[in-house]
Amino acid sequence: MSILQRSISTQQDSSNPIQKMAFEPVHCYVAGRIQPKVENDSIAHALKLLMQGESGQELSAKALYPILCLAEHRHLAREVEWQLVIDDMVAYEIKPSSESCLDELIASLRPSVLPSDAHIAVGQLSDAPIDFEQPPKLLCHHIMHKSRDFLVSGISEALKKYASSEKCDQDLLTNQVLEAILSHTHNLGINDAERALNYVCWNYPDIYAVAYKMLKGGFENDSQDPQGFTLEDIFYESYPLQGQQQIYQIVFEFKGNSSDLRSRWYCRVDASADYPTLQHGMKRYYG
User: Fold this and answer.
1) Are 151 and 145 in contact (CB under 8 A)?
2) What is the pTM of this model?
3) What Cα–Cα distance (Å) separates residue 65 from each residue in 33, 35, 46, 47, 119?
4) Do residues 178 and 151 lie in contact, with contact meaning Cβ atoms separated by under 8 Å?
5) What gap in Å lies between CA 2 and CA 6, rounded to an integer?
6) Three-class secondary structure of residue 136 per DSSP
7) What is the Cα–Cα distance from 263 to 286, expressed in whole angstroms?
């Protein structure tokens, strides 16, 4: 069963994004890794001839990048199939909507891109019929590289607002905060709530700063636990005063490690347009 089919099987009501495709476009904001694929034998042969005679070399991202980044090989780049991989599964077949998007796809193959990095694909599902035996087609408008190191540096800056005198434990931040939150972005990003969640997880470092501070014991004049709080859940809810906008509250729930204390924080995201935006920063949640 494909990753899309697994997702849709749990959404059989009228809010199902696939059911709405006949009426309106389904926008996507999804995180994964870009993977090139060459199916055409003649294109594969031409690419291997350009690899300085190394005919046995695989058409990997590392091997393809030096060739595809050159203007004289643009015609070959257009013949490459592009895939977005989530959790080692092909989630989407990406169709670039412009030459600039094709440039971004080629750039995603750079050797400087680390395995821990991610790429955000922004676009909309193709109106082609859904075939659950094959990944759906994503008409992509923009590919954004998200460096894990850059995200960590942003978190370190955000921590100054919440724990200005505290030195950051990088191992604790990476292993118990960063990974726990980013695991929630392993979704297809085909509804507004998922798009909002994916946006804050990759663009708003304050959520990690708060989670780190909670793990270290909590905040003064608020819930405190000497052994800290563990992030138990992240959920989203529609903001009741949104009007015509699609606004979601992303709620982070923590539980004390040596007590039954619970604490919730939230931020608010406007997912009305193709590109979600932060509407309200992290605050305590009392709902």
Assistant:
1) no
2) 0.86
3) 15, 12, 14, 11, 16
4) yes
5) 6
6) coil
7) 8
Q: Which two tokens stand for residue 276?
A: 């979600």
Nearest CA-CA partner of 18 in 4, 32, 2, 31:
4
Q: 247 to each of 25, 53, 269, 270, how far by Cα in Å?
A: 18, 55, 6, 4
Report, as an integer, the average pLDDT of 9-20. 48
pLDDT of residue 99 exceeding 90: yes
Question: Which helix (H) or strand (E) segment is 27 a member of?
Answer: strand 27-37
Q: Which two tokens stand for residue 199?
A: 């946006």
State whether residue 97 is helix, strand or coil: coil
| pLDDT above 90: percentage of residues in the chain | 64
Quote the longest CA-to-CA distance of the chain.
Answer: 68
Distance from C-alpha of 47 to C-alpha of 55, rounded to nearest angstrom:
9
User: Can you say how many angstroms the Cα of residue 95 is from the centroid of all Cα atoms in its chain?
Assistant: 18
